[in-house]
Amino acid sequence: MRELGGLLLLAALLAAVPLALDDFRQQLAAKYLCFAFAAVGLVLLWGYGGILSLGQGLYFGMGSYFMAMFLKLEAASQTNTGSALSQFYGSNLPDFMVWNSVEVLPWWWRPFHSLPFTVAAILVIPPLFAFLLAYANFRKRVGGVYFSIITLALAAIASIVIIGQQGYTGGVNGITDFKTFLGVDILSNGVKRVLYFVTLGVLLASVLAGRSLLASRTGKILVAIRDREDRVRFSGYNPATFKAFVFAVAALLASLGGALFALQEGLASPSLVGIVPSIEMVIYAAVGGRLSLIGTVYGTLVVFAAKTFFSENFPEIWLYLLGTLFILVVMFLPTGLAGFVERVRWPRARTAKAPVAAPGSGRPAIGEVETSVEVRSGRPA
After folding, report:
1. What is the pLDDT of residues 90-105, one digit of tens each?
2. How far is CA 277 from CA 158, 172, 270, in A?
3. Which of 42, 48, 179, 308 has a 20 to 30 Å separation from 334 between CA atoms?
4. Contact 317/333 with Cβ under 8 angstroms?
């Protein structure tokens, strides 16, 4: 019930944003919510799956670029129809392709004329790629810091490839300058407000889906794998499949956030794909609490709000102030904002079900999940 109450409070607060803030601040809040998708995925992946990914920007970028490709082709069709440029090239090319002397639309761009294909690409390609990548690694028992480095390297490679293929991806500038979605002006304040509520609704639905996943048998097995993978394997389960599955779910959530970001901000850029945004997504989850789906949304909003406040009021030292904030959180709030709130409101909270310790291990038995956010022996609940 406490979690449901926290979710309702979050929904009420975010629903009131368009009433309390001007159009510019509302647009900033919508941007923050897009990044919260990736943070929610990291709670499932890192907090409950025990898998730290430093490359979620790759999947966020996939979603944003897929949506941007559809929007750009629609904008090019509206701009170039009947023009001498269109007649010369025989097709409606995006402007950056014309500037880079690309004469024919690449074959892998053409399906993005279709919105159903675009939606399918956003929902299928990132999680499918993530599942295959993760399963190939986990099947060979590659995990821990080694897997984190692999994800980080992939995000860096993707950013470099996007910048290098300027004629097909827009290069360092990314894909920009699209104004409509199925003929609707997405630059108007009224449509932006509608998109804000759409983003909020999808985010809340993602949080509820995450809670359902954690409450299911799959969620309990994930926690067991996080704590004692060897015992789960000896029990007859294949940990690689479950770990690859939760990695794919996190990729799907990041892709959804990226697609909504492109729709809200009118931009898909390599700056959203590389190392820096990927690590920032981990920070959002850590600040909010890596064991709390609701807390990580608050954490994302707090980090972005701090970044905005410091950069506007202390432009020369804002990075140092933001770094100090992160250090303080790590030192004094190891369980994030969610853990701090739990300790303040329920200082004598105990676990709802005391797990039976494995003989001689000092750890909970497999499948027993603590409901408190307290940490025992340095391990997350």
Report:
1. 457 888 898 888 888 9
2. 13, 15, 10
3. 308
4. no
CA neighbours within 13 Å on the CB side: how many for 209? 14
Residues 6 or more apart in contact with residue 269 via CB below 8 angstroms:
64, 173, 174, 175, 176
Contacts of 214 (CB under 8 A, 6+ apart): 44, 48, 222, 293
CA distance 307 to 287: 13
**Alpha carbons 123 and 95: distance in angstroms, whole number:** 27
> pLDDT for 228-277, tens place per residue?
999 999 988 999 999 999 999 999 999 999 999 999 888 899 999 989 89
Residue 106 host element (H or E): none
Dist CA 180 CA 195 (whole Å)? 13
Number of H-type helices and E-type strands within the chain: 16, 4
Report pTM: 0.86
Structure token pair of residue 114: 């279709």
Integer-rounded Cα Rg, in Å, for the chain is 22
Placement of tokens 């923050």 in the chain:
32
DSSP letters for 35-92: HHHHHHHHIIIIIIT----S-HHHHHHHHHHHHHHHHHHHHHHHHHTTSHHHHHHSS-
Cα 43 to Cα 295: distance, rounded to the nearest angstrom: 10
Pairing state of beta strands 184-185 and 180-181? antiparallel
CB 211 within 8 A of CB 292: no
Beta strand extents in 145-252 (DSSP E only): 175-176, 180-181, 184-185
- The closest alpha carbon to 130, from 53, 238, 75, 35, belongs to 53
Are 270 and 77 contacting, i.e. CB atoms less than 8 angstroms apart?
no
Grouping H, G, I as helix, E, B as strand and the rest as coil, residue 299 is helix
Report phi then psi at 176, rounded to 5: -140, -175
Compute φ and ψ for 290, nearest 5 degrees: -75, 0
Q: For the stretch 4-24, what's the b/e string if a residue is b when 16 or more beta carbons lie within 10 angstroms of its beta carbon? A: eebbeebbeebeebbeeeeee
DSSP bridge partners of 180: 185
How does pLDDT run across 135-185, given as a tens digit for each residue? Answer: 999 999 898 899 999 999 999 999 999 999 999 999 999 999 888 888 888
And the tokens for 188?
């108007």
